Amino acid sequence: MIDRDRMTEYVMDLIRIDSPSRREREVALRLKKDMEDIGGRCVFDSVDKKVGGNVGNLIVKIKGNTEGVSPFFLSAHMDTVSPGEGIKPHIVNGVIRSDGTTILGSDDKSGIAIIVEVVRTLKERNIPHGDIEIAFTVCEEIGLLGARYMDCSIFNSKYGVVLDSGSPYHLITKCPSAKRLEFKVYGLEAHAGVCPERGINAIKVASDAISRMRLGRIDFETTANIGIIEGGIATNIVPGYVRVVGEVRSHSEEKLMDQVEHMKRCFVESVAEYKLNLEGKHYSARVEELIEKSYDRMNVSPEAKIVKLLTHAARELGYNVELHASGGGCDANYFNKKGIECVNLGTGMKEIHTPNEYLVLEEFYRAAEIILQTIKLNALNTL
Length: 383
Ligand SMILES: [Zn+2]
Fold this sequence. Notes:
Elements: H1 4-16, H2 25-37, E1 41-44, H3 47-51, E2 58-62, E3 72-77, E4 90-92, E5 95-97, H4 106-124, E6 132-137, H5 145-148, E7 159-165, E8 170-175, E9 177-186, E10 190-191, H6 202-211, E11 216-219, E12 222-231, E13 237-238, E14 241-250, H7 253-272, E15 275-278, E16 281-284, E17 286-295, E18 298-299, H8 305-316, E19 322-325, H9 331-337, E20 341-346, E21 349-350, E22 358-360, H10 361-380
Parallel strand pairs: 3-6, 3-7, 7-20, 8-19
Antiparallel strand pairs: 1-2, 2-6, 4-5, 5-22, 8-18, 8-20, 9-14, 9-17, 10-13, 11-12, 12-14, 15-16, 21-22
Helix pairs in contact: 1-4, 4-10, 6-7, 8-10
This protein binds zinc ion.
The site of zinc ion has 5 residues, from helix 4.
């Protein structure tokens, strides 16, 4: 039922439109036009003002053609990571790739193209369906900002699907909570050659703290990372300041807090070991910390209606879709929090956020077939 050639061409078109985070306007206007052409009602929200972007989230509502069917929510994000400008997609052996100098941007243009193809098919073939509500979001890649600030009370849907992961045979129902940790370590500057003993090396203090830390995979559901370290001015100055930024993710709130506390403690302990007495004056290293929530976890029950609908629909098509936990957050984390029970289905995108990113066309088509079948099943009201 899905028009494979049309959706392939469409995703290539979308990929060719640059849409880095905060600059999704061009792709958003194209989508708005295409959705209006098939009878969608489109509005932009005002999230752009909040995030400093050039366009808000695009909200599309497609009127149902069947009474008494629960509305169905679909979402994909419009922004891409860098290097993602001037992408030249081409097809080789059933996959779409870039020319190797940029990412491909199938994350998440493939999700968008699936949604558009499904809606076109519903319309063309006059397939029974209820209202379809769509959010094409901005700034997913820089902290799920579009979904985070979206006013979800404009939607009537109670459940739906985000298309923003790798395999259409994997349905992500669990994503971790995440926190961002920033540590500012202060030492004492001194000339490194003339009087190093009059300094406290902030880089050394931070290094000691980090070397005490448990990092990487903490357990099956918890990870931690130090990702940024910045400081120092010159080789001949004992550095007086360094900034360290990291993150913790876990499917368990308790483990998340434990790991955050552990990392804080490492800094506090390290700092306590660096003290200096100069002509009767006491100096000591110190640390300032800023811990922020990045997003809350999601955990959709295997018994949830959306999970049943989607797995049944896939089975009707002869595919087995397994439930999975993800190590990353996605817009669905926020939609769940805001009352729309959402799962995340893969689109065939692989090796995302690298120049090797590619889209497996068979999986891309399969995801569209599964979503179409899920919407059909939803309209039957049998589950
Ligand atoms: Zn994505």
